[in-house]
């Protein structure tokens, strides 16, 4: 088992990542040696989760720089800008992807003068982004762990664990830190239709770490809350704007249920998820292939031509959120969005 979900191969100048479409049946890493293969891996969710695709995007620029045949620094920079646009377009909702890609491009522009400089700076900055991910996640997890009490049962949706990041995790990182602090925490994992990140990945990670986890269908959440079987809800985020948190489709429904049952609803995410420039209505929600609902692992589960609506994410209004946890602190709405990142 590798410790990082995604890593740079400094001998071959390629990217290695865990192919998450195969989990839990198979734990296998694949190698991306072209930007096209990396983009395919992001689009098909071989690598997924906002922080992990952020690191993937940053490594993608390093990959493009190493593989480029450009003859001048200017030509190389032009080429990297176009690869940056290609990478950013793979998944529009998570802000970490564009944040990391732009961070690498901006660092190159500010410090690199020659072709060799550009290649070195791109590689170093991408490595830094990936290394920082684990450090930041541990920091926000320590803050978040203080909100969990010994004996808590915590519900989560999708996968915001180490496989959604370079390592450690955000929502599941908070659970890991609380367990490290000696608290007994049980997790309820919602399966997360249609791609089952909860049942395939969250349960897998937690069972590996020997943290007690129970799998439920997404529609069991309300019944469990009504019966008093959930103490807290904690999820990750793909983007946080001044008025909403974007996360896997179904998150909003859980937030409404949590509010109805007076259950604290927490969001844990790094500051790179925060978008200070836009509000809810301006964000593009990724819509995925209708066949994700018509077929399951190749078996038909709906009429092949039934019209489908398949948004990958939803937006939870800030008023449904008890607190947002970033590496900078724990913030209870209402707050100024800038406070989350300073
Ligand atoms: O479509 P996915 O699997 O990339 O969606 C992932 C999520 O919605 C996660 O909750 C989010 O990215 C936070 S991961 C730390």
UniProtKB/TrEMBL annotation:
Record's keyword terms, sorted: Amino-acid biosynthesis, Coiled coil, Isomerase, Methionine biosynthesis
Active site positions: 238 (proton donor)
Reactions that this protein is recorded to catalyse: 5-(methylsulfanyl)-alpha-D-ribose 1-phosphate = 5-(methylsulfanyl)-D-ribulose 1-phosphate
GO molecular function: S-methyl-5-thioribose-1-phosphate isomerase activity
Residues that, per the record, bind substrate: 48-50, 91, 197, 247-248
GO biological process: L-methionine salvage from methylthioadenosine
EC number: 5.3.1.23
Site (Transition state stabilizer) location in chain: 158
InterPro entries on file: IF-2B-related, IF-M1Pi, IF_2B-like_C, Initiation_fac_2B_a/b/d, M1Pi_N, NagB/RpiA_transferase-like
Pfam families cross-referenced by the UniProt entry: IF-2B
Keyword Coiled coil attributed: yes
Coiled coil keyword on record: yes
Coiled-coil intervals: 63-90
Xref: PANTHER family: METHYLTHIORIBOSE-1-PHOSPHATE ISOMERASE
UniProt similarity note: Belongs to the EIF-2B alpha/beta/delta subunits family. MtnA subfamily.
Described function: Catalyzes the interconversion of methylthioribose-1-phosphate (MTR-1-P) into methylthioribulose-1-phosphate (MTRu-1-P).
Protein name: Putative methylthioribose-1-phosphate isomerase
Organism: Candidatus Argoarchaeum ethanivorans
